[in-house]
Amino acid sequence: MTNTMERERMVIVGNGGVGKSSMIQRYCKGIFTKDYKKTIGVDFLERQIEIDGEDVRIMLWDTAGQEEFDCITKAYYRGAQASVLVFSTTDRASFDAIKEWKRKVENECNEIPTVIVQNKIDLIEQAVVSADEVETLAKMLNCRLIRTSVKEDINVASVFRYLATKCHQLMTQTYDQVTSGNNSTQQTSTHPPYSNAPTISAFSPTFTKSSSGTIVLRPAKKSSGSSAARKRKIVLKKCGIL
Ligand SMILES: Nc1nc2c(ncn2[C@@H]2O[C@H](COP(=O)(O)OP(=O)(O)OP(=O)(O)O)[C@@H](O)[C@H]2O)c(=O)[nH]1
């Protein structure tokens, strides 16, 4: 592991009990526990994955869902490159709070790639939100929607791979702009267009492309670390992006 490895910092927010800590534990440690242990303030775990043949370290900040911790947690939103807004299928208030969570994150770090996660999809029979209203909210907030079950390990990895890929693309664009000396009018938006983004559905855990718009998330192809990739890392480091 070199100190030039790309690092992507993500924050996971949402009401208490929606499954944020469970999601991070599932992704980073491969475990799930039924016990509910309230997060006090913030917690942190990381995992290394490969995107486009490059090693990327994903740093996941788990934040407390209770408002009483807001002043502590908001300090951790700063500098985040992506965010995950989580609500639970069985908790109406957590769904209603999603807009507010997005606002809180944006107050600290402007617009960053963001995913809305509807967790506990294994409890769909006890759902207190309809599929339509969830999809409408995601469109309105211009966010990708991913339905997950941390318990059944459905789509959890898709959430983080999707965001890591977005962050990686943004870093690559920044690199291209720096190396081509283009810092004028052709500035690319830091927020990709999501309005027509398909939903990643918990009902297609095999991630095959379906007519309903479910998208395919394939593992990145391994490539031998090219000299271009190495140069890119050096430039990114010099730009203070790493
Ligand atoms: N059925 C089901 N239960 C889940 C799922 N994900 C998490 N849980 C349970 O939901 C409860 C709360 O999960 P946590 O991960 O602690 O929730 P949190 O959002 O981190 O909560 P705070 O720390 O209070 O913000 C735990 O009992 C988990 O076992 C899921 O996908 N399905």
TrEMBL record:
GO molecular function annotations of the record: G protein activity; GTP binding; metal ion binding
GO biological process per UniProt: anatomical structure morphogenesis; protein transport; system development
Protein's membrane topology: Lipid-anchor
Gene Ontology terms: cellular component: autophagosome; endosome membrane; phagocytic vesicle membrane; plasma membrane
Keyword Lipoprotein assigned: yes
Reactions that this protein is recorded to catalyse: GTP + H2O = GDP + phosphate + H(+)
Disordered: region residues: 178-197
Protein keywords: Cell membrane, Cytoplasm, Cytoplasmic vesicle, Developmental protein, Endosome, GTP-binding, Hydrolase, Lipoprotein, Magnesium, Membrane, Metal-binding, Methylation, Nucleotide-binding, Phosphoprotein, Prenylation, Protein transport, Transport
Main location class: membrane
EC number of this enzyme: 3.6.5.2
Cofactor(s) annotated in UniProt: Mg(2+)
Superkingdom per UniProt: Eukaryota
Places the protein is found: Cell membrane; Cytoplasmic vesicle membrane; Cytoplasmic vesicle, Autophagosome; Cytoplasmic vesicle, Phagosome membrane
One family name in Pfam for this protein: Ras
Biased composition (Low complexity): 179-190
Subunit structure comment from the entry: Interacts with SUFU.
Similarity annotation: Belongs to the small GTPase superfamily. Rab family.
Name under which the protein is recorded: Ras-related protein Rab-23
Lineage: Eukaryota, Metazoa, Ecdysozoa, Arthropoda, Hexapoda
